[in-house]
Amino acid sequence: MTKRIGRDRRLVPIPEELVQSLLKGASREGKPLNQFVEDALRLVLNSLSMGYSYQELARVLETVQTQKASGMTLVPVQVLKYLESKVYPVEPEALQTEWFKAGLWYGKYLKEKFSKPAEVLAELLEVTRWELDEVDVKEESSAVKFRCVSAILSLEETLFLKKFVEGSMQGLGYKLIKEDLVKGIIFLEFKAEAE
Amino acid sequence: MLSEGILKNEVSSPLKSELNMVKVKRKTFAAREDFLNHLGKIAERKGLTLYNTVNDIFQLFINAEQLGVNLEKTVEQQELLENARTSGFILVPEIIWYDLIDEAYRNQKKQTLQKWFQAGQWIAKRYRSSDFKDPFEAFKVNMQSFTWKVSEFTLQRDEETGILNFRLVGPRLSESHAALFTALMKGALQEFGYRIVGSDVSFGDAWIRAKEMET
Prior knowledge:
The complex is a heterodimer of chains A (195) and B (215). Chain A is of the alpha+beta class and 195 residues long. Chain A is built from seven helices and seven strands. Chain A starts with a strand and ends with a strand. Chain B has 215 residues and is α+β, with helices and mostly antiparallel strands. Helices cover 51% and strands 22% of the residues of chain B. Chain B contains seven helices and seven strands; from the N terminus they run ββαααβαααββαββ. A four-stranded antiparallel sheet of chain B has the order 4-5-7-6, with helices on one face.
């Protein structure tokens, strides 16, 4: 179905209708058609090679933009663990409060930006907290159930995560009504607070 | 690769058509053979024809473009997250991060600097032992993208003198953060075979000068 032309190129058939769409796309982006098509192949191939679907990629873009805008920073994980291990034994309450406050701010940010912020919070945790194996959120009338599972989180890290989620949900207007926490697993239930 | 000049009109036979036996006007475009080989493998894995796979990819790209999604930027961001994960980085709220840093630097300066230095060594070792064609370049590019909170991250090597210059500038960079990040970079540069010949740290600014060690 392909014919070789030159040393390293082949002719590939595509429907004429698609060619028209490609021409329009290239024109919109102000690129020559050949550049537009080469970019399309390269980018989609890159993402497919990494095991991502287009829908997942679109989610990643929004996630990173949100994380950057909401005061998140990338840090070396071993340094973070070291710092937490030094500060937590001395000031356990203070550190948990800091995670809660950070979550509160984050939740308020998400509430302003998204129509379904609880779902977005779960997605953001799932995509960017790679130490978590599972993140589920279930909304049932005025209640929201939140569940996170990780095989590698320490008890302290699980507590920090819980505080962060609790703070975020409070920022979204929910109050914690039930909690269950063991090392690596948090299960939290929230109820919408009256406005 | 594709241009109006090399597009050729074709009308496929209904018997040969891969689109529900319907006559479909086709054109052809010239594609790089390495791309096509790659596509062929993806098509095989998915049990599709090359023709359908190419169509799907273009359709995907057109949809993204029509929705205003910049696929190039999307892939870049996805790579950033993937690189951060494999490089041993994690996303945390900066309010907590800066508090932790300041507290540790104030109370246990020596040990904290040492920990950051070791983290730098560990990160560089991870790059060196990976299959990057140029581990140092990969380290440099990734660190630039990970430090999105600073306004300037430069790491440049003068080929004539063999001197490497690192500079970090950011109006929100506290002295403790600058000092600790410098320690991390020193650890990494040492692991990459450089000897530190000078450095300085102040509020909002840090620099290192290093020279490649002779082997």
